[in-house]
Amino acid sequence: MENELKHNTDSMKAANDPGIYKLIIFGVIVCMVGVFARFAFDSWILSLVCWIVLFIGVFICIKGVFKILDA
What we know:
Layout: H1 10-15, H2 18-40, H3 44-69
Helix pairs in contact: 2-3
């Protein structure tokens, strides 16, 4: 099998780094907390804080995706 793909390039090593996936999972958990809190409380101040937490989680996830893409 001479035509096997070699996954030893720098971009593949970066894409397979477990730290990136841990970052994305952390971002998803932060997003879930923001969404749950958004619908659990009925105050405009808490709602605003929950939206901010949600967008922080989205930013963390996007940061992890761009690390995978090495952009």
